[in-house]
Amino acid sequence: MAIEEIRVKKTIPFDYLQKGLEMSFDQVERLKDIQLRGLQSRRKLCLVLDLDHTLLHTNFRQNPNINAASHDDIFEWKAMGKVYFTKLRPFVRNFLEEASHMFTLYVYTMGSRNYAHIVTDFLDPQGVYFGKRVISREDCTTPGQKGLDVVPVDPSAVVVLDDTEPVWKGYFANLLLIEKYDYFSQMELDESEEEGELSYALEVLTKLHSVYFDWYDNFMDCDVRELLDTRWEEIIDDQGVGMGTCASEMRCGKRERVDDQILISAFGSLLLLNHFVDSDSYYITHSQLRTEALGISLAAFSVFVPFLGKFLKGASQVDQASLPDGSEQVFLMPQNISNSIKEDFAWGTYILLHNTNTVSVLISVQGALCVRGYWNTPENISKRNALGWFEKQIKQIGLSNLKDTLYFRRAQDTDVHQTVHV
């Protein structure tokens, strides 16, 4: 065997962008990061779209009843001496138009490059949606598998819409599944334009885009894979699930099955601090705070928090109506702690507040107080002075040397301000 045949490939080809273009792994990583920042600045994400059975259906079939000329969504074309028919999925033109405002669009098909360009022209005759971003099987770096390695955008901002799960091995976290569109094998029965699969997919993608940039605006960082995992129920909350692909099926490739009761039993006593407040009591006394405070120390916190979402994703959603009256969300961190600790604290507490009954979190990080949650702070306290106000309240209740994380349980009629400020 020739050396060239066994040599490990050190570059990634991007022939679909420019003939003969190859980049090293380092170059690709830098490009992905540049593209990510560019997308975020334009408030866009990246959407990778399969062709066959996702956006359209192509079939070789001799059918005298099919008259492509009488339909604006059926195309007849020839290749290799055969006649082919391509039927566009209902709502696909509206889908591409609306999605293009929120996403940079890519096509990724296991069909040939020639086929990909022929049918993409049916979808995008003016080239306004895809441009050169049409990836085919010739561009795959692993035979028979699709991969985001040839998409020059960081995977944290990439969503994939496809009807086939197995071809995305290694990228299930980015995948949204859609029901297979099989027009020619179903006696030409078609989906509804307004209530079909693409209409529903657009609603989900719109909500995902909104949730992503809500998070990004607050913390300047986000990952669609984490959102699809930990906030899936929120993303589909307002969407109907009566179409062919139900909400759970769109994420079946990634979401592990977690028994809610086992999850809550295993982690509830630690994370929800049920040992602080029993079922008959809503208030935490000062002596309980001083003697029974159990949380996660800084060392354990820095290790455990990045994986917190994995443990808590099966927890029941919080009841927003149970927030203490008059409270507002507070998020305070000193500037002198490292960016990595800030990110861990931001993500970990975010998961707690949105996926458990925790209402507020206090923690000492590198000797400095961090606060997240819903509190009844005085109206005359500015953001600049808020951290000092919290430190003063903690000292007054005897926790001047706070070294643990305190989780306060969300409960009806709880006045969080009274918990800390007496």
UniProtKB/TrEMBL annotation:
Highest taxon of the lineage: Eukaryota
GO BP term, example: cytochrome b6f complex assembly
FCP1 homology domain segment(s): 40-205
Cellular component, GO, one term: nucleus
GO MF term set: phosphoprotein phosphatase activity
PANTHER family: PROTEIN COFACTOR ASSEMBLY OF COMPLEX C SUBUNIT B CCB2, CHLOROPLASTIC
Name used for this protein in its record: FCP1 homology domain-containing protein
Organism in which the protein naturally occurs: Heracleum sosnowskyi
